[in-house]
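User: I'm preparing a small set of examples for a lab meeting where we compare how different chains pack in three dimensions. I only have the primary sequence for this one, and I'd like the structure in token form so I can line it up with the others. Please keep the answer compact; I'll paste it straight into my notes.
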Amino acid sequence: MLKLISQCLIVLLLLADFAVAKEFQWSGYQWRTRPTSDRTMGPGKNLWSDEEQNIFIDDDGNLHLKITQNAAGKWVCAEVMLVDSLTYGTYEFELSSRYDTLAKNSVVGLFTYISPASVARKTGGIIGNDVPDTPHEIDIEMTRAWGDANLFFTTHDPDVQSPSHGFYQPLSGNETTHRFTWRPREIRWSSFHGHVAGQANPSDPIIEQRSNENHGKPASVQYTGPVIPKDLDEKLMINFWIFNETKPEPVPSDGKIQELIVHSFRFTPLAD
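Assistant: Understood. Below is the structure token output for the 272-residue chain.
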């Protein structure tokens, strides 16, 4: 009986978290917030909040995600996701804030996600077999926490090293556009200066500035390897969080409030 009561309490706690999630319309889609919680959860073992100081839409229709301190002085992060799953196609994000001047350990995530366990259940893949048969996430990430790059294109499977490509260029303005096109056997990523969603060949790409084999080349990657997710019931997410490895609690490296401004999201399904 005690075990049953304990299990019921766990279920109620989980339902309570879900019940307070908020939904809103933005950029032509229905979105859901990650609800406020006093329990740390990944990524980064962070606290999360969907209070107005962390997630809001301004008068110009821009979506703001902020990392702030709550009433207890704890740093809290923000995340939203689409209510409905999309499919293969082009995902584009227009930003209206600079990611190169954020705290070094803050992370912007623009990505599709489904849990590896769900992939395994739906496809027959096996977790823990060192084989990339449960790919589950396509990422565009902005951070300076992982070396000398500040823009990353990545796809994930828990059983193999994630194929990842990093780029670095200081920005000259607030407006950038980031996109990936997801096909059954290919993912293509690219990033540009300005708001250029919907344009076939934007003229001002982000350019690698480091002295490496990609110096002077556009931030553009084509991937055709095995870590390409299948079209299941993945959800598109946007999150803004603190990467934390050493401190007891996640704290922005500059100790300041962080803000991400997303001007728009655009999805274009693959042509028949």
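A couple of notes for your slides: The longest helix spans residues 2-19. The radius of gyration is 19 Å.

User: Perfect, thanks.
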